[in-house]
Amino acid sequence: MSSSLPPRLFYSSNRNLKRTVISTPTMEPTIKREEKERTFNGMSAEQITLMVCPSQFRQVYIKITDTIGEKFKEQGLKIENKQTVSGPLEVLINWAVTPENLESNFANMFILNYHTYCKPIQLLSVIDKICNDIVESKNEPVKTIKQKWAKITIFMKIWTDLLPYDFHDKEILGAIETFLQKYQSQFVGIAQIRKMIQAAQSIPHLPTFERIENSNGEEKTKPVKELTAETIVGQLSLYELTLFTGIEMKDFLGSAWTKKDKYERCPRLCEFLEHFNAVTNWVSYSILQESDINARANLISKFIDVAKIMYEQMNFTGFFEFYSGLNSSAISRLTKTWELVENAAQRMDPLRKAADPTRSYASYRKYIQQNKSKGYIPFIGVIIQDLTFIDEGNPDKTESGDVNFEKCRMMANQLLTIRPLQNDQHSIYKALPFFKDFILSIEQHKNDDEKAQYDISLQIQPRN
C-alpha cells in the first residue's frame, strides 16, 4: 500500500456537531467507493473513522466541537465534559425538557433538588410556559413537536414518581387543573399526564400509625423483659420501615433537619431521627430500671440478640439503635453487670466491628455494597452525615447567582440510592394488639437526659 497518499479528510455528518475536519491515518478505505455516500449518511465522525480504517489503525485522534445546547449556553447554561455545571433556574428547567439534552438522569437530578430553588407552583408555571411555546411554534417539523411533547411527558412522569406529595399541595391544585385543561386539545398525551398526577394524588398522606394495618390495638404492652427478642425486632422493624418509606425526598435538602423550622420543612425525617434517639435512650433506660443485677444482665443479653437479628435482617437503623444504647456511657461502665452476661465479649465483638465508625463507617458501607441487591433499612446516621458533607461543602448557587448543578448532581446521587429502597420494600411483620402502646412507650424517651441516665448508672455501680 502506497505511503505517498495524503491524509484522508472528511466531515462529520452529525448535524449536532460543527463541521470539523478530521484527519485519519493514511490508509485506503476498506469499503467500496460506490458504498460511501449511502453508508456515511447519518453516521458520526467516530463511526466513519472506524469503518474506513483497518483495526490496527483505529486509534485515531478526533477533535470535535460539540454544539449541543448552544442556544442554552447563550442563555447562561454552563456545560463541561458533557455535564451541566450551572445555569439560571428557568434555563435549567427548559434544558431538562429539551430533546437536545441527552445527559443521563438530568431530569431526575433536577427534580430531586428543585425545592432548594423554587416552589412546585413556580416549576409548574415554567413548564406551562414551555408547553405554550410548543403550541405556538408554527414552523417546526411535526416530528420535532412530538419529541418536545414526549420530553414534557417524561419530565412529568419523573416528577410524579419522585415527589408525589408535591401534587397534594393546596397551592398547586388549581393550577394543575388549569394546566391540564389548557393543553388537552393540543396534546393527546395530556390524558397520560393527568393519570400520572391522579396516581400521585391518590397516595395517602397519613400519619405513621394510620399507614400500618391493625396498628390501633388498645391492648397494653407487656414489660420488656417479658417480650422475646424476635417480638421486639418485628414490631420495631414494622414501625421503622413505615417511618423510612414515608420520608419525602425534599426532606433531605439543605440540612433542613438542623433548622429552626425543621418540623415544617422535613417533618417525616425529623420523626425518624427522633425515633432513633428514643429507641437508643429506651434501651439504656430499660436496663437501668432493673434493680436486680441478674435481671439487668438478662436484659442486656436480650438486647444483644435484638441487635444481632436486626443486623441479619438488614434493619441497620434498628441495629445501630440497640448497639448505641448498649454502648452508651451509662451502660458500658456497668462492668459487674456485664460480667454476668453470657459470652458478652464474644457476642459484642462482631457487633462492634459492624458498627465501627472509622473511615466513615467503612465496614457498614462494605456490607451494604456486598448485599445491595437485598432490601434494607439504611442507617439514617450515615445518610445524614453524607448529605451534610455535601450541603456544607458546596454552595447552592454560584458567584453569579446561578444554580450550582454540580451540587445538585452530588445530592441526587445520594438520594437516588434511597428512593428505590422506599419503593421496593414490604414488611414481613404484622402489628400485634399491643403494637401502638409498645411504640408509644418507647417514643416518650426521645428527650431523655443522658446525664440523668449516667447519674442512675453511678448509683447502681459507684466509681471505685
UniProtKB/TrEMBL annotation:
<keyword id="KW-0344">Guanine-nucleotide releasing factor</keyword>
<dbReference type="GO" id="GO:0005085">
    <property type="term" value="F:guanyl-nucleotide exchange factor activity"/>
</dbReference>
<dbReference type="InterPro" id="IPR001895">
    <property type="entry name" value="RASGEF_cat_dom"/>
</dbReference>
<dbReference type="Pfam" id="PF00617">
    <property type="entry name" value="RasGEF"/>
</dbReference>
<feature type="domain" description="N-terminal Ras-GEF">
    <location>
        <begin position="80"/>
        <end position="204"/>
    </location>
</feature>
<dbReference type="InterPro" id="IPR008937">
    <property type="entry name" value="Ras-like_GEF"/>
</dbReference>
<dbReference type="InterPro" id="IPR036964">
    <property type="entry name" value="RASGEF_cat_dom_sf"/>
</dbReference>
<dbReference type="InterPro" id="IPR000651">
    <property type="entry name" value="Ras-like_Gua-exchang_fac_N"/>
</dbReference>
<dbReference type="Pfam" id="PF00618">
    <property type="entry name" value="RasGEF_N"/>
</dbReference>
<protein>
    <submittedName>
        <fullName>Ras guanine nucleotide exchange factor putative</fullName>
    </submittedName>
</protein>
<dbReference type="InterPro" id="IPR019804">
    <property type="entry name" value="Ras_G-nucl-exch_fac_CS"/>
</dbReference>
<dbReference type="GO" id="GO:0005886">
    <property type="term" value="C:plasma membrane"/>
</dbReference>
<feature type="domain" description="Ras-GEF">
    <location>
        <begin position="228"/>
        <end position="463"/>
    </location>
</feature>
<dbReference type="InterPro" id="IPR023578">
    <property type="entry name" value="Ras_GEF_dom_sf"/>
</dbReference>
<dbReference type="GO" id="GO:0007265">
    <property type="term" value="P:Ras protein signal transduction"/>
</dbReference>
